[in-house]
Write a structure and sequence with these properties.
It is a single chain. This protein is an all-alpha fold. It has one domain. Helices cover 71% and strands 0% of the residues. The chain has three helices and no strands.
Length: 76
């Protein structure tokens, strides 16, 4: 397992330490859990932003939400 250092604002560090004390878990375990929970979301966002930028560059037409609903047969 690799180790990395993270600088935290004082208030965040205090909250993390208090949580660790209350939960009986280490601060490092809480940091690992938070990172693992959010890393996939951050990666997905990056992928979506890249795809959107490529689509804009392509000049292809985008569908409105109403047009997409109609195309998928989901209109009310």
């Amino acid at each position: 397992m690799k180790q990395t250092a993270v600088r935290l604002p004082d208030a965040t560090h205090s909250r993390l330490r208090a949580l660790a004390a209350r939960s009986g878990r280490t601060a490092a375990s809480h940091i690992r859990e938070a990172l693992e929970r959010h890393l996939e979301d951050i990666e997905d966002l990056h992928t979506a932003e890249k795809a959107a930028a490529e689509h804009r560059k392509s000049g292809e037409r985008a569908l409105s939400l109403d047009e997409l609903d109609t195309y998928l047969g989901l209109e009310d």
